[in-house]
Design goal:
Number of helices: 12
Number of strands: 11
Radius of gyration: 20 Å
Bound molecules: phosphoric acid mono(formamide)ester
Helix content: 25-40%
Amino acid sequence: MSNSFLRTSDFSTEYLSTIIDRAIAKKTTPSGSKPLSGKSIALVFFNPSLRTRASMQVGIYELGGNAVILEPGGTSWTLEHRERVVMDGNKTEHLKEFVRVLERYVSAIGVRTFAALEDWETERADPILNAFARYATVPIINLESAMHHPCQSMADMMTIREHLGTGKKKVLLTWAWHPKPLPMAVPNSFALAAAQFGHDLRIAHPKGYELDEELIADVVTQATLNGGSVEFTNDVDEAFDGIEVVYAKSWGSKNFYGDANGDIRERSAYRDKWIVDDAKMTRTADAVFMHCLPVRRNVIVSDSVIDSPRSIVIDEAENRLHVQKAIMSELIK
Ligand code: CP
C-alpha cells in the first residue's frame, strides 16, 4: 500500500472507511494527540485555495507539526517537471532538485496543481503530481491535481455518512453551467469515491461533457466490486428523480482542451438550464445539496437551494480539516 495519498483508488474501501471513522472520532471527541510533533510538512500551491490551504495549515498545527507553504512562480522559483528538457525558457528550477532538497527538511509534501485545460492527452496523465511522486521518498498528498482531488472526495464521503448514515445512497453527480471551463478533478474523485463506497451513482451532463473513459471504467469496476451501480443521463430534470444526495460541479469538455472559447460557445445553450434550483430539488427524495466550493451563486445553484436547510456545503468544507488530519496521522510516520 502506498504511503502517498494521490487518489482513493490506490486504497481499499475498508482502509478508506477506517480513515473516515477516525476523522469522525477526531471531530466528535478531539484527543489532542500530536503525531506530527517536531515534523514539518511542505504545502506546494501552484494554484489558489481557501479551504485546502487553511484546513491543511490548521490541521498540521493541531497535530503538533509545522506547515511550510510554497508557491512556485509566486514566492518560490518557477518549476520545470518534464524530463530531459533544455531549461532555456521561463522555468528556474527542476522538480528533481526541488523535491530532493525539500524532503531533507520535511516529512511529507502536499501538492496542488490544477489542469491547465490546454492538452487533454498530456494532462489526463497527471504529469506534475506524478513527477512529485516519482522523485520523492516522503509521502505526497494530493491537494488537487489535474485529475484527482481525493481529500475533497474523502470529506464528501464523510459528510454523506454524517448526514445520512452508513449504507448505500442514491447519489447524483450533476454538471452545472459556469461561464468558463473548469478542471475535472472534483467530479472524477467524487465519482470514484462514491463507487468505492458502494453508492448508487447517477452522473448527469450534457452530451460532449463525458468524463475520462478510463476513469469511468474504474468507477464502474469499483461500483460492481462494492455493491453499487452507475448510470448516466443527459436529461437534467429526470436526473434528480428519487435522488438522496445532489452533488453539483461544473467541468470543461475534454473535446475543447486548448480551445476555451469553443467550450464557452458549446455550453452557452445550457445556461439557466443546468442549474440546481428548487424545481429540480423538488423531484428528489428530500436530497441534501453538496458542492466542494467555491461556488457561483445563481449560476451553479440558486440562493434558495444553497441557503436551505438541505444544503450541507459548510459541513462538507469543515470535514476537509478532520479527514486530512486522519490521513496525515495515518501516512506520516
Ligand atoms: N474545495 C476546495 O478544494 O476548495 P479550495 O479550492 O478553496 O481549496
